[in-house]
């Protein structure tokens, strides 16, 4: 695949062997982000909506979530609120990074009570992803 030629695997700056959940309704977005996550030495688990994401969280070990906002069935706002309010610790405090085109300042003003830890905007890059993982996973 083209991406793996552009970005050689390089995991020295990054936590490895984390299981990272990518929640996005668009297949191409899930695929590209999961490839970048794999290049950081971590494992990507994929969900196409929030309902599926919650099912995975209840059954599998996940360390970090990349969450799209607009999705059918259960969107990223509803899903993050559900995780923060309805799930038990430590799942309720899992780091959640919003996938959005919003300006960060406006985003955190508008969604301050939802419970996102961070946001990441397109175009995604291996550097941006590493930076977020390092910032949020102890
Ligand atoms: Mg979407």
Q: Key features?
A:
138 residues, alpha/beta, Rossmann fold, binds magnesium ion
Overview of the molecule:
α3 runs parallel beside α4. The chain is globular, with a radius of gyration of 14 Å. It has a single domain, classed as Rossmann fold (3-Layer(aba) Sandwich). It has a 5-stranded parallel β-sheet. The N terminus is likely disordered. The termini are far apart. It is of the alpha/beta class. It contains 6 helices and 5 strands; from the N terminus they run αβαβαβαβαβα. The chain binds magnesium ion. Magnesium ion (MG) binds next to loops.
- Name the average pLDDT: 88
Helix/strand/pairing class, anyone? alpha/beta
Give the topology string: H per helix, E per strand: HEHEHEHEHEH
CATH architecture: 3-Layer(aba) Sandwich
Low-confidence residue ranges: 1-14
Q: What's the level 1 CATH class? A: Alpha Beta
| Number of DSSP strand runs | 5
Q: Roughly how many Å is the radius of gyration?
A: 14 Å
Largest sheet: 5 strands, parallel
Distance between the termini: 31 Å
Number of helices: 6
Question: How much beta, percentage-wise?
Answer: 15-25%
Number of domains: 1
What is the CATH superfamily classification? Response regulator
Q: What spatial order of strands do you see in the largest sheet?
A: 2-1-3-4-5
Bound molecules: magnesium ion
Percent helix among the residues?
40-55%
CATH topology: Rossmann fold
Shape: globular
């Amino acid at each position: 695949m083209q991406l793996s030629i552009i970005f050689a695997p390089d995991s020295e700056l990054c936590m490895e062997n984390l299981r990272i959940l990518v929640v996005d309704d668009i297949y191409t977005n899930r695929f590209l982000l999961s490839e970048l996550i794999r290049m950081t030495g971590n494992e990507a688990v994929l969900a196409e909506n929030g309902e599926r994401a919650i099912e995975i969280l209840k059954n599998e070990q996940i360390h970090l979530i990349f969450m799209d906002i607009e999705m059918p069935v259960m969107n990223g706002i509803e899903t993050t609120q559900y995780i923060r309010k309805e799930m038990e610790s430590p799942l309720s405090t899992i780091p959640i990074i919003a996938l959005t085109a919003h300006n960060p300042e406006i985003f955190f003003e508008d969604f301050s009570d939802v419970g996102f830890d961070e946001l990441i905007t397109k175009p995604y890059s291996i550097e941006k992803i590493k930076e977020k993982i390092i910032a949020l996973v102890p």
